[in-house]
Every structure is written in structure tokens, then in C-alpha cells.
Amino acid sequence: MYVYYFWPEGFGFFGRKDYAGDAANRVTGVAIAQRKLFVVLEYGKRVDMFDIDDVQETTDVPRVVRPRFSLNSNIMRFFGVTYFAPVDLKISRFHKEVIFLKTKSGVMAINVN
To answer: DSSP secondary-structure letter at 56?
Structure first.
């Protein structure tokens, strides 16, 4: 997964995050909100959250970036969700502090703060 930044005169490479090539790490959704990068892994049934500054590459040597937080079934069980299967992720310019997580059973609105 490669992250680029855009400005009026052009664009540039910001950084990247690599996942292993197995089915549990198949990326099905990506979004950036509040300087956080959200990655949906449908078959792994989790959402990884990274700080956008952790992904930034300043050298030619790629570095290992670990998620700051992973939203999975163990976390969601604490909130009363018995089946957690994320599929995709959307953000809205009208709701800057909320991500909309599409699951196999509906849509969840989650505060990113």
C-alpha cells in the first residue's frame, strides 16, 4: 500500500505499508481521517489504525510499521458486538471525526478520537 500526498503543483511519495501475501492480510479498504490511516482486512476480520507520521519514509530503507491500534472481534465484544466482520471503510468530509465501517451485517459509525 503506497501513500502519496498532493498539493496544487503536483504530488509526491509519502510512505508505504507492506502486508504479507496471505489471505488474512488482504486489504479491502483504506481511508485517512484525522492524520490516521485506517486499513480494513476483510479476511483477517480487523481494522488496523496507523498514525500517518509512522508511515512516512525519510530514507530509502523501508522500515517496519506496526499499527497503533487494531479493531478486531475481541475489542468489539467488549462493546456488545458478537459478530464483527468488516468489509470496507468510508469517510465523509461533513463528519471529520467519524469513520463509517461497512460490515457484513450493517454499517457502524466510529469516532476516531
So the answer is: B
Distance between CA 108 and CA 70 in Å, rounded?
16
**Calpha distance 40→44 (Å, rounded):** 9
Q: Is the pTM above the cut of 0.70?
A: yes
Nearest to 104 by CA among 43, 55, 14: 43
Q: 19-31: per-residue pLDDT in tens? A: 877 777 888 888 8
Query: How is residue 33 annotated by DSSP?
Result: E
- Pairing verdict, β 86-92 and 95-103: antiparallel
- Rg (the chain; Cα; Å): 15
Would you give the distance in Å from CA 41 to the centre of its chain? 9
